[in-house]
Amino acid sequence: MERAAVFLAELAPQARQVFEYLLRTPGRMVHCTELVDEVLGGPNGSDPAPRVAGVLSGMNKACGRSGRRYPFHWWQAPRGSTGATYAVRPSVAAVFLAARLSR
Questions:
Q1: Residue 101: CB partners within 8 Å, gap ≥ 6?
Q2: Beta pairing, strands 30-31 & 73-75
Q3: Are residues 27 and 92 in contact, defined by beta-carbon separation less than 8 angstroms?
Q4: In 10 A of CB 39, how many CB atoms?
Q5: Where are the alpha helices (DSSP H) in the chain?
Q6: Cα-flanking dihedrals φ and ψ of residue 86, to 5°?
Q7: What digits encode the pLDDT tens for the residues 44-66?
Q8: Could you list the residue range(s) of the whole structural domain that residue 82 is in?
Q9: Is the per-residue pLDDT at 103 higher than 70?
Q10: Cys-Cys link to 4, which of 40, 46, 64, 99 (CB 3.0-4.6 A)?
Q11: Nearest-CA neighbor of 32 among 58, 55, 61, 16?
Q12: Domain tally, the chain
């Protein structure tokens, strides 16, 4: 739980917003277009997949400082589709919720 608290403290603002959105529905697979629409202010004319990936790369510092790996899973789009899908396991979400409550 301590590493989760350090991870949260080190997140870049937009990465925190995306991660907290994923934490609200643990176990649910969320497509990158939903993250852009619901968290990142909507489409801006660019492809949502690299936009979300760029925001989530802001977690690199948090991973390094906390000693945690990325706390979500992602899946590439099937051939012929675009965008990735992301999800947080319920057990991982529980750890991060406990870390937030302990602050």
A1: none
A2: unpaired
A3: no
A4: 19
A5: 2-10, 13-24, 32-38, 48-56, 60-66, 90-101
A6: -130, 150
A7: 777 888 899 999 998 999 999 99
A8: 2-101
A9: no
A10: 99
A11: 55
A12: 1
CATH number of domain containing 18: 1.10.10
Structure-token pair, residue 63: 């991973």
Do residues 78 and 86 lie in contact, with contact meaning Cβ atoms separated by under 8 Å?
no
Residue pair 92/71 in contact by the 8 Å Cβ criterion: yes
Instruction: Please name which of 81, 83, 76 lies closest in space to residue 33, comparing C-alpha atoms.
Output: 83
Handedness of CA 45, 28, 81, 57 (dihedral sign): positive
Q: What is the 3-state secondary structure (H, E, C) of 27-49?
A: CCCEEHHHHHHHCCCCCCCCCHH
Q: Say what the pTM is.
A: 0.89
Q: Cα–Cα distance between 26 and 13 in angstroms, integer? A: 20
| End-to-end CA, the chain | 11
Q: Which residue type sits at 43?
A: P
- Which helix or strand (DSSP H or E) is residue 74 part of? strand 73-75
